[in-house]
Amino acid sequence: IAPVFVLLEYVTLRKMREMIGWPGGCGDGIFSPGGAISNMYAMLIARFKMFPEVKEKGMAAIPRLVAFTSEHSHFSVKKGAAALGIGTDSVVLIRCDERGKMIPSDLERRILEAKQKGFVPFLVSATAGTTVYGAFDPLIAIADICKKYKIWMHVDAAWGGGLLMSRKHKWKLNGVERANSV
């Protein structure tokens, strides 16, 4: 019923995926009203990807999930965990360095700690441009850890994603192309 809008959406989202660095702009996408809902969508998709049965059986049918994000990440990560029934206590805050960047060694330590407790790490939400410091998490190191432990990597780029269009500052998002969602 809206063929021009659908075409415009298709072309725009494909171009955005190309800018992220996904080969040929492959993948999928949706327009959303803001970063908070986008972070919740990422959490929803990561949970479904790991446990598709949650759609029919609900949270009771899956193990206790744990998400990881930096102590300087946006409040919406915890808000999304609450809304999706994962619980705010299941969001582990990872220490940051003096510049506000997530410390990868602390991330890996906390993942192992969660696994030892019998929890299932399912999402790491990295930040590209924190609201307080404007910090960019080390995406390459985080991607390596996510790959090692088979965890969905999301990048909250609501603040810093625009730098993908900058010749001078695009490097701050090195590794974003390795994320499962942005």
Describe this structure in words.
By secondary structure, the protein is α/β, with parallel strands linked by helices. The protein folds into two domains: 1-31; 32-178, 3-Layer(aba) Sandwich (Aspartate Aminotransferase, domain 2), CATH 3.40.640. It is built from six helices and four strands; from the N terminus they run H-H-H-E-H-E-H-E-H-E. The chain has helices at residues 3-20, 35-50, 54-57, 76-83, 104-116, 139-149; strands at 65-70, 91-94, 120-127, 152-156. Strands 2-1-3-4 form a four-stranded parallel β-sheet, with helices on both faces. Strand 1 (65-70), helix 4 and strand 2 form a beta-alpha-beta unit. It is globular and about 50 Å long. The two termini are 28 Å apart.
Structure described in brief:
The chain has 182 residues and is of the alpha/beta class. It has 6 helices and 4 strands.
Topology:
Elements (H helix, E strand, L loop, with lengths): L2 H18 L14 H16 L3 H4 L7 E6 L5 H8 L7 E4 L9 H13 L3 E8 L11 H11 L2 E5 L26
Parallel strand pairs: 1-2, 1-3, 3-4
Helix pairs in contact: 2-4, 5-6
